[in-house]
């Protein structure tokens, strides 16, 4: 049973980071996460946000990315870091399950 609404936020940029040449871009990662999470948990009770680090108002996560403390794409589940750079689905799934989401039936 899913409890409440869980927000998945991806911080990224149109440009790929210098060390991410062969990795998917931020928007591709954002779309891939939506599809993968939707297949496992469904889309009820999950909302998604994409924040462009060069266009959004600065916040603590953008500041950490700009200072190279965190890498983008940065994935948050309810404000908690679930993955960065090349995020792993297992880590994102664990964070979602910790928030009460369960695998959908069928």
Automatic annotation (TrEMBL):
Any Pfam family: DUF1462
Database matches in SUPFAM superfamilies: Thioredoxin-like
InterPro entries: DUF1462, Thioredoxin-like_sf, YuzD-like_sp
Gene3D superfamilies linked to this entry: Hypothetical protein sa0798
Protein name (Swiss-Prot/TrEMBL): Disulfide oxidoreductase YuzD
